[in-house]
């Protein structure tokens, strides 16, 4: 089992920044991908960013150039640095963990990000 604990969400004005963190614990292993989905109010969950076990990254077009995903393997933690935030970034953000040998995703509890003036 893997447990994920998210932190860093909150209320921010348009143009501001936040950094989300997600720390994994349990039977983590060595090779795994971690990333972030988000679910805006009234909409479906969508992929935001992913970082693979080999450290390659992919981003949704809507966040390219504004968000940066990174990982610290020593801390079993993934980060999402969010800059130039827009109201349309408002959502519940969910961290996920997936071993390279599995199709099963483990999910964090979600953290609310609200971008509003």
Structural commentary:
The protein has 117 residues and is mostly beta strands. Helices cover 0% and strands 54% of the residues. The strands form 2 sheets. Strands 2, 4, 5, 6, 9, 10 and 11 form a 7-stranded mixed sheet that branches. A hairpin with a 5-residue loop joins strand 5 and strand 6.
What's a concise summary of this model?
It contains no helices and 11 strands. It is mostly beta strands.
Structure annotation, total helices: 0
**What is the mean predicted local confidence, pLDDT?**
97
Radius of gyration computed on alpha carbons: 14 Å
Runs in which pLDDT lies below 50 for 5 or more consecutive residues are none
Percent helix range: under 10%
What does the overall shape look like?
Answer: globular
String of helices and strands: EEEEEEEEEEE
- How much β-strand is present in the residues? over 45%
Largest sheet features: 7 strands, mixed
Q: What is the count of β-strands?
A: 11
- State the distance separating the first and last CA atoms: 40 Å
Structural class: mainly beta
């Amino acid at each position: 089992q893997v447990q994920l604990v998210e932190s860093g969400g909150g209320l921010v004005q348009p143009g501001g920044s936040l950094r989300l963190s997600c720390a994994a614990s349990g039977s983590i292993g060595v090779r795994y991908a971690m990333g972030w989905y988000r679910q805006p109010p009234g909409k479906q969950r969508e992929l935001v960013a992913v970082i693979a076990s080999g450290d390659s990254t992919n981003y949704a077009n809507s966040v390219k150039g504004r968000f940066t995903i990174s990982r610290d393997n020593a801390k079993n933690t993934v980060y999402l640095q969010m800059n130039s935030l827009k109201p349309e970034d408002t959502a519940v953000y969910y961290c996920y963990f997936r071993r390279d040998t599995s199709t099963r995703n483990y999910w964090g509890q979600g953290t609310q990000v609200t971008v509003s003036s």
